[in-house]
From TrEMBL:
Residue ranges of every copy of the Thioredoxin domain listed in the record: 6-125
UniProt similarity note: Belongs to the thioredoxin family.
TPR repeat start and end residues: 133-166
Listed GO biological process terms: cell redox homeostasis; response to stress
Name the UniProt record assigns to this protein: Thioredoxin domain protein
A molecular function GO annotation: protein-disulfide reductase activity
Database matches in Gene3D superfamilies: Glutaredoxin (3.40.30.10), Tetratricopeptide repeat domain (1.25.40.10)
Xref: SUPFAM superfamilies: Thioredoxin-like, TPR-like
Superkingdom of the source species: Bacteria
Pfam families associated with the record: Thioredoxin, TPR_19, TPR_20
Region Disordered, annotated ranges: 1-20
Length: 302
């Protein structure tokens, strides 16, 4: 319903590759055919509709945040009444979700952002789909697992071009730099993330950088000391720090576990604290962390 003496404007559409204005003429291509490869949301609206002006910025924001997992087609029912009539749109805004060429969900009215977000997330899952950004991150992780550091770096770089603030992409790229031995590059990437950002790969990169920063540069002297006295915990600890800083996390963990087994309280439990940082650098699902935690528990509770 329009306000007296005021000509309402149409909802402003944000410029986005994920949002477009549709029509009856393009409905088959924009919605029916397009939804066979990607979930499509159709927003039926009109220029005189107050609730439409409330919903439009919200739904556009949520669709853009989905990074391509779904797309939005906006249709002015006054200019394009045919498909709105076929779908029995009786009030606006009305929003339909299409998957595989058919409507699978709908709602009416200007819902709050939390409900719109839930609607979009449900639709993305129903479409089987990850967004292109999620696919790049998954590809990067898979590449790291098989040792293709170059392929991983390329995938994460493309993901960061799409979303420079994506914590998973930042963590993955940092991990790729670390595996490649580029500590400076890893540190620059980690700095892109907010200080309070949390992600397993990002946490691992931060821990690995901390280990590298603390690592002694020379080990010959401590190795000689340790060879002369296997109970020289300080020498073993320094050697473990050097190994961890160089990325040899399993060897570092073994030395630290040896110290804990022989004197768990040594130097205010310095070995146990360092071991936990090594586990974090290796990642919670790594064999270094899983086997190391089992050995640690066996030592502490024996």
């Amino acid at each position: 319903m329009s306000l007296i003496g005021e000509k309402p404007a149409a909802p402003a559409s944000g410029k986005s590759e994920h949002i477009k204005d549709g029509s009856d003429a393009t409905f088959m291509a924009d919605v029916i055919e397009a939804s066979k490869t990607q979930p499509i949301i159709v927003d039926f609206w009109a220029t005189w509709c107050g609730p439409c002006r409330q919903l439009t910025p919200t739904i556009e924001k949520v669709v853009n945040a989905a990074k391509g997992a779904v797309k939005l087609v906006k249709i002015d029912v006054d200019a394009n009444p045919a498909f709105a009539g076929q779908l029995r749109v009786q009030s606006i805004p009305t929003v339909y979700a299409f998957v595989d060429g058919r409507p699978v969900d709908a709602f009416q009215g200007a819902l709050p952002e939390s409900q719109v977000k839930a609607f979009v997330e449900k639709l993305a899952k129903a479409g089987g789909g990850e967004s292109p950004l999620d696919e790049l991150i998954a590809l990067g992780k898979e590449s790291l697992e098989i040792g293709d550091v170059g392929g991983a770096a390329q995938a994460f770089a493309q993901a960061l071009q799409t979303d420079p603030t994506n914590v998973k992409a930042i963590g993955g790229m940092a991990r790729a730099y670390l595996i490649g031995g580029d500590l400076e590059g890893a540190a620059e990437v980690v700095a892109m993330a907010p200080a309070d950002a949390k992600d397993p790969d990002l946490d691992a990169a931060r821990a690995a950088l901390a280990l590298a920063e603390e690592a002694p540069s020379e080990t010959a002297a401590v190795e000689k000391r340790l060879a002369a006295d296997p109970d020289d915990h300080e020498a073993r600890f320094e050697l473990a720090k050097a190994l961890a800083g160089a990325g040899h996390l399993q060897a570092a963990a073994d030395h630290l576990l040896t110290i804990i087994a022989r004197d768990r309280a040594w130097n205010e439990e310095a070995a146990r604290k360092q071991l936990l940082t090594v586990f974090e650098a290796a990642g919670p699902t790594s064999e270094v962390a899983k086997q190391g935690r089992r050995k640690l528990s066996s030592i502490l509770f024996s």
